[in-house]
Specification:
The structure holds 2 protein chains of 2 kinds. By secondary structure, chain A is an alpha+beta fold. Helix content of chain A is 42%, strand content 15%. Chain B is 50% helix and 13% strand. Chain B has a 3-stranded mixed beta sheet, covered by helices on one side. The longest helix of chain B is centred in the middle third of the chain and has 35 residues. In chain B, helix 4 crosses helix 7, helix 7 runs parallel beside helix 9 and helix 7 packs antiparallel against helix 11. Classes of the chains: A alpha+beta, B alpha+beta. Chains A and B meet through helix 8, helix 9 and helix 11 of A and helix 1, helix 7, strand 11, helix 8 and helix 9 of B. Bound molecules: flavin-adenine dinucleotide (FAD). Flavin-adenine dinucleotide (FAD) binds next to strand 1, strand 3, helix 10 and helix 11 of chain A.
């Protein structure tokens, strides 16, 4: 891949992207779109977002920097960055196939075989093949290394039995990145795991929807009963699955790059919350005139500014020299907890109407805020809980002993 | 949308950060900090000479006045590293005095004083008064014209940093009812004009100053048209440098506590493996990194109208809050040892309390910030 861009081409590309998104973003599809890929709950949302991702890809604004031979655009990274900026500028809906675009794809490009790349990358980009992640189990969540779903070698396939849970997009996925135990007798629990690119639409794989705290359907539980996975779809080495899983978590937590571009969640708009503080009345005056509200609003604006500045600081090597992993490893904790708290605050700002929920015609912003608050836990729990993030930062950045 | 500032980092800042990190670590070990605490002047004059020789005093002074023509942003990494090592020196008051002269002094004053400061003359500011109000234009000290054309000063100043070792002092007074600034040489002060104050941060030297009986010439007065702007400028500059000190101090308090948590064992386990210790340390650290990003945004945007003030106040609030938290937890996580004079946690906690008390605290800055943003 080339790494430098002709600035003239880049400018033209950026202008085209800007025009394309201006033209093609649908302002109001007539139903509430999910704020993150983890929220996709209805077929209506799913199909809308799948078509949207496909359209963006076909226009050349997704995977623009992935290699051409597998379906990418073959352009330098700066091009995709411009396309993503244009997408954001025009408030484009999220990219649906998050696990494929952000984790499976980079993983295949880093350590996958030629055959895997040829087979999977294009479908990831076009959203034809939706991917899901089979890591967590009913009994093993934070302690992922203890996963017990069994995969037993039988000729040129593995036979899988067990269950995965909280599988985002599980109902729609054609493939799963699956962590399963191939050697129950390994001396360290981590060494008995292998990592598979597992088909979902086969005999022996069954998904059951789980209802979320919002009342909607989202993720699933996935059951494996003598499901057969081709042995050549094991990625990494047999028994080396933990290392591969850790690598995908680095993509997931933003500590490793190579993603296809776009975004898979919409940033909470702190200025929209500020607008709420100005428009909602509290004791006869705009809420923002209440000193306690004002002070808390100030905190949120400072916090969002902190995150912006920390992102800018990533590019300033001398300011990260002493602990280079600090900012990447803490951004998930900071970002997700912020989203949870600011949405909670937004509900507070709506005062008495904070008691309304989605569906009530008089709910503020159609019930966006309470729903966003409840959904915000998806990110403070999923992808490693905030408590586990504390452990990771303490142990890997500060060098504190393991809990 | 409102501009809240942005991060930028110059090559000069990078170079100075590297040099200052090493210099402060090597030249200000805790043993040295503690021995200087016992001495009257409170700093090492040889080290001061070295600092002057490094050119650090002239960084934010224009070349025309004998400096290197950079900006206050380039002093930030230095002050940050000084704060981290609790390095005692009159660097901050001297730098702020030079900034005040630049912002409000007459051409003759700039020509006479700035090259001297760049060479190593120590200077300080006498702005606060016994009422302890942070509003700098609130002074009651007076400058009164005498029949002989000279000017008599009267009144009381407080919290004058390193005044005992300063050659040049800048005092704020009221003249014809308006705020004014005046330059004093140490030799203008009658004996007994200075009294060393007992302050919570024992690495600091702070003085009460009585202006009664001080007589100066009219040429010692600042340009009256620029005094208010100079006071505003020095208020923000003082907060920028205080934020830099507190950023460094917060990191030091965290590192000091992390070291202990990695060596002290209880119930057969290192205390740092307990989440009741680990997680608050991580909270402190994560917030420190955020505060540090604010600091370098404030440094970068300092001279910008609007964004500069917002960024400085944010940095000040963030660094003060995290330094207080980190140092407070540092005492707690050292257990009984944390309660002792020998434990360095108290040095950081006292430093944090001192810095919070000067130039407006976080609550004060929050109010100012709110009125800038909302
Ligand atoms: C919306 C959503 C989508 C998800 N999508 C997927 C997906 O697509 N694929 C997938 O594999 N998984 C997914 N997950 C699962 C997620 O990764 C797990 O829920 C998470 O890792 C926590 O595991 P657990 O649910 O078993 O909770 P537990 O591990 O049982 O944790 C319970 C509580 O104990 C705390 N805790 C546990 N261990 C420690 C410790 N060592 N120190 C301190 N506190 C601790 C946790 O922080 C938590 O508060 C999703 C989760 C959510 C909420």
């Amino acid at each position: 891949m080339t790494t430098t861009a002709d600035p003239k081409d880049l400018k033209a590309f950026a202008a085209d992207a800007d025009a394309w998104f201006r033209e093609n973003v649908v302002a109001d599809p007539g139903f509430m779109l999910p704020l993150t890929f983890m929220e996709v709950g209805t077929d209506q949302q799913f199909h809308f977002l799948r078509d949207w991702q496909n359209k963006v890809y076909e226009a050349g604004y997704l995977g623009a920097s992935w290699p051409k031979e597998y379906g990418g655009g073959g352009l330098p990274q700066a091009f995709q960055a411009e396309a993503t900026r244009a997408m954001r500028r025009h408030n484009g809906p999220i990219m649906l196939n998050a696990i494929g675009l952000n984790w499976t794809g980079p993983l295949l490009l880093d350590i996958g075989s030629e055959e895997h790349r040829k087979r999977f990358i294009r479908g990831i980009l076009s959203a034809e093949d939706i991917w899901c992640q089979g890591f967590s189990e009913p009994e093993n969540g934070s302690d992922l290394g203890n996963a017990q779903t069994r995969a037993v070698r039988d000729g040129d396939s593995f036979v899988v039995n067990g269950s995965k849970i909280w599988t985002t997009l599980g109902r729609y996925a054609r493939y799963m990145i699956l962590l399963a135990r191939t050697d129950p007798d390994a001396s360290r629990k981590y060494d008995g795991l292998s990592f598979f690119l597992a088909p979902m639409k086969i005999e022996g794989v069954e998904t059951r929807p789980i209802r979320k705290l919002t009342g909607e359907h989202g993720f699933t539980q996935t059951f494996f009963t003598d499901a057969r996975i081709p042995a050549h779809d094991l990625i990494g080495t047999e028994g080396g699955g933990w290392k591969v899983a850790m690598r995908t978590l680095e993509y997931e937590r933003g500590a490793r790059g190579g993603q296809a571009g776009g975004y898979v969640s919409v940033d909470t708009d702190a200025f929209a919350v500020l607008g709420l503080a100005r428009s909602m009345m509290r004791d006869g005056a705009p809420a923002l005139e209440d000193p306690a509200i004002r002070d808390r609003m100030l905190d949120f604006l400072m916090e969002i500014q902190s995150q912006t500045l920390c992102r800018q600081r990533l590019a300033v090597a001398p300011l990260n020299a002493e602990r280079p992993s600090a900012l990447p490893l803490s951004s998930k904790l900071i970002g997700t907890e912020f989203v949870r708290r600011i949405n909670e605050f937004a509900v507070t700002l709506t005062g008495m109407k904070g008691g309304y929920y989605v569906g009530e015609p008089e709910a503020i912003n159609a019930g966006l805020w309470p729903r966003a608050y409840l959904n915000a836990f998806s990110a403070t729990i999923g992808g490693g809980t905030s408590q586990i993030q504390h452990n990771i930062i303490g142990e890997h950045v500060l060098g504190l002993p393991k809990s | 949308m409102l501009d809240l500032g942005r991060l930028g980092f110059s090559e000069e800042q990078a170079d100075l950060l590297e040099v200052a990190t090493r210099f402060c670590r090597e030249r200000s070990p805790i043993s040295k900090v503690r021995s200087l605490m016992l001495e009257e002047t409170g700093f090492d004059t040889d080290l001061w000479t070295e600092i002057a020789a490094l050119g650090w005093l002239g960084i934010a002074i224009p070349e025309a006045y004998g400096g290197s023509g950079l900006t206050l942003a380039e002093t930030v990494p230095i002050v940050e590293q000084m704060g981290r090592r609790l390095l005692a020196s009159p660097f901050v008051p001297t730098t702020l005095a030079a900034q005040t002269i630049l912002a409000g002094g007459t051409e003759a004053q700039k020509e006479a004083l700035l090259p001297r400061i760049a060479q190593g003359a120590r200077a300080t500011l006498a702005l606060a008064e016994p009422d302890g109000d942070w509003r700098l234009e609130q002074m009651t000290s007076l400058a009164e014209d005498r029949p002989d054309g000279r000017i008599a000063l009267s009144g009381e100043k407080r919290f004058v940093l390193d005044a005992g070792a300063a050659e040049i002092l800048i005092v704020s007074v009221r003249r014809h009812g308006e705020p004014q600034l005046a330059l004093l040489e140490a030799s203008d002060l009658p004996t007994g004009a200075l009294r060393r104050e007992i302050v919570i941060d024992e690495t600091r030297r702070s003085f009460a100053l009585s202006l009664d009986g001080v007589v100066i010439s009219a040429s010692a007065l600042f340009d009256p048209a620029r005094v208010r702007a100079a006071l505003d400028h020095v208020h923000l500059a003082a907060n920028l440098l205080s934020a830099a000190e507190m950023s460094g101090g917060a990191l030091a308090a965290i590192e000091y506590t992390v070291d202990y948590a990695r060596t002290r064992k209880q119930f057969g386990k290192l205390i740092g493996s307990y989440q009741a210790v680990k997680h608050p340390l991580v909270d402190a650290y994560v917030r420190y990194e955020q505060a540090r990003s604010h600091l370098y945004s404030a440094a970068h945007c300092f001279s910008e109208q609007g964004a500069g003030e917002i960024a400085v106040r944010m940095a000040r609030i963030q660094t003060e809050t995290v330094f207080a938290y980190a140092a407070d937890r540092s005492i707690q996580f050292h257990g009984g040892f944390g309660f002792t004079y020998d434990c360095d946690a108290q040095l950081y906690r006292r430093r944090a309390l001192w810095n919070a008390s000067q130039n407006g605290d976080a609550i004060y800055h929050r109010r100012r910030l709110a009125s800038l943003i909302f």
